[in-house]
Predict the structure.
Amino acid sequence: MVKRNKVIKQQSCPLIDTINVISRKWLLLVLNTIGNEGKLGFNSILNSIDDISPKALSDVLKTMEEMGLVKKVIVKSSPPRVEYSLTYEGKKLRKAVIPLFKWAAEHTGHYECPILQSNKLNKEEYS
Protein backbone atom coordinates (compact mmCIF):
# COMPACT_ATOMS: atom_id res chain seq x y z
CA MET A 1 0.00 0.00 0.00
CA VAL A 2 1.33 3.44 -0.95
CA LYS A 3 0.83 6.27 1.49
CA ARG A 4 0.01 9.59 -0.05
CA ASN A 5 1.19 12.77 1.47
CA LYS A 6 -1.65 15.08 2.30
CA VAL A 7 -1.33 18.54 0.87
CA ILE A 8 -1.82 21.08 3.58
CA LYS A 9 -3.86 23.98 2.33
CA GLN A 10 -2.29 27.32 3.06
CA GLN A 11 -4.24 29.73 5.17
CA SER A 12 -5.94 32.50 3.32
CA CYS A 13 -3.45 35.25 2.65
CA PRO A 14 -4.27 38.78 1.50
CA LEU A 15 -1.23 38.71 -0.80
CA ILE A 16 -2.62 35.91 -2.96
CA ASP A 17 -4.80 38.24 -5.05
CA THR A 18 -1.89 40.58 -5.74
CA ILE A 19 0.48 37.72 -6.57
CA ASN A 20 -2.11 36.23 -8.93
CA VAL A 21 -2.45 39.53 -10.77
CA ILE A 22 1.25 40.33 -11.14
CA SER A 23 1.98 36.79 -12.27
CA ARG A 24 -0.38 37.17 -15.22
CA LYS A 25 1.11 36.64 -18.63
CA TRP A 26 2.46 39.87 -20.12
CA LEU A 27 2.13 42.07 -17.02
CA LEU A 28 5.81 42.15 -16.09
CA LEU A 29 6.88 42.63 -19.72
CA VAL A 30 4.44 45.53 -20.13
CA LEU A 31 5.62 47.01 -16.82
CA ASN A 32 9.25 46.76 -17.93
CA THR A 33 8.56 48.14 -21.41
CA ILE A 34 6.79 51.24 -20.08
CA GLY A 35 9.44 51.68 -17.39
CA ASN A 36 12.24 51.62 -19.96
CA GLU A 37 10.77 54.49 -21.93
CA GLY A 38 8.95 56.55 -19.32
CA LYS A 39 5.86 57.22 -21.43
CA LEU A 40 4.52 55.10 -24.25
CA GLY A 41 1.45 54.99 -26.43
CA PHE A 42 -0.58 51.83 -26.91
CA ASN A 43 0.87 51.02 -30.34
CA SER A 44 4.43 51.60 -29.17
CA ILE A 45 3.92 49.09 -26.36
CA LEU A 46 2.23 46.67 -28.77
CA ASN A 47 5.14 46.90 -31.22
CA SER A 48 7.73 46.46 -28.46
CA ILE A 49 6.46 43.10 -27.19
CA ASP A 50 6.55 40.12 -29.53
CA ASP A 51 3.41 38.01 -29.82
CA ILE A 52 1.13 40.08 -27.58
CA SER A 53 -2.30 40.70 -29.08
CA PRO A 54 -4.05 44.09 -28.89
CA LYS A 55 -6.77 42.50 -26.71
CA ALA A 56 -4.24 41.01 -24.29
CA LEU A 57 -2.38 44.33 -24.06
CA SER A 58 -5.60 46.24 -23.49
CA ASP A 59 -6.63 43.83 -20.72
CA VAL A 60 -3.23 44.01 -19.00
CA LEU A 61 -3.12 47.81 -19.17
CA LYS A 62 -6.63 48.01 -17.70
CA THR A 63 -5.63 45.68 -14.85
CA MET A 64 -2.44 47.64 -14.22
CA GLU A 65 -4.39 50.90 -14.16
CA GLU A 66 -6.89 49.43 -11.68
CA MET A 67 -3.99 48.28 -9.47
CA GLY A 68 -2.44 51.74 -9.55
CA LEU A 69 0.66 50.60 -11.44
CA VAL A 70 0.18 52.72 -14.57
CA LYS A 71 -1.28 56.10 -15.27
CA LYS A 72 -3.25 56.61 -18.47
CA VAL A 73 -3.25 60.10 -19.97
CA ILE A 74 -5.32 61.10 -22.99
CA VAL A 75 -3.21 63.41 -25.15
CA LYS A 76 -5.19 66.08 -26.92
CA SER A 77 -4.15 65.73 -30.51
CA SER A 78 -5.80 64.90 -33.77
CA PRO A 79 -6.62 62.07 -33.52
CA PRO A 80 -6.51 61.85 -29.71
CA ARG A 81 -4.04 59.34 -28.37
CA VAL A 82 -3.25 57.71 -25.07
CA GLU A 83 0.05 57.60 -23.19
CA TYR A 84 0.90 55.23 -20.36
CA SER A 85 3.49 55.82 -17.66
CA LEU A 86 4.36 54.04 -14.44
CA THR A 87 3.05 55.38 -11.17
CA TYR A 88 5.22 55.45 -8.07
CA GLU A 89 3.92 51.96 -7.17
CA GLY A 90 4.61 50.75 -10.71
CA LYS A 91 8.18 52.01 -10.49
CA LYS A 92 8.64 50.26 -7.14
CA LEU A 93 7.33 46.98 -8.59
CA ARG A 94 9.59 47.28 -11.63
CA LYS A 95 12.60 47.88 -9.40
CA ALA A 96 11.63 44.76 -7.42
CA VAL A 97 11.37 42.51 -10.51
CA ILE A 98 14.66 43.51 -12.14
CA PRO A 99 16.48 40.95 -9.92
CA LEU A 100 14.07 38.35 -11.30
CA PHE A 101 15.12 39.28 -14.84
CA LYS A 102 18.77 39.02 -13.75
CA TRP A 103 18.15 35.59 -12.24
CA ALA A 104 16.41 34.42 -15.42
CA ALA A 105 19.41 35.53 -17.50
CA GLU A 106 21.83 33.80 -15.20
CA HIS A 107 19.73 30.65 -15.04
CA THR A 108 19.26 30.38 -18.81
CA GLY A 109 22.46 32.02 -20.04
CA HIS A 110 20.47 34.43 -22.22
CA TYR A 111 22.35 37.62 -21.44
CA GLU A 112 21.58 39.17 -24.84
CA CYS A 113 17.81 39.24 -24.32
CA PRO A 114 16.29 42.63 -25.26
CA ILE A 115 14.61 42.81 -21.85
CA LEU A 116 18.01 42.73 -20.17
CA GLN A 117 19.63 45.10 -22.61
CA SER A 118 16.94 47.67 -22.04
CA ASN A 119 17.62 47.48 -18.30
CA LYS A 120 21.34 47.93 -18.97
CA LEU A 121 22.03 44.54 -17.44
CA ASN A 122 24.85 42.43 -18.73
CA LYS A 123 26.87 39.35 -17.93
CA GLU A 124 29.63 41.32 -16.19
CA GLU A 125 27.18 42.26 -13.42
CA TYR A 126 27.08 38.63 -12.34
CA SER A 127 30.81 38.30 -11.72
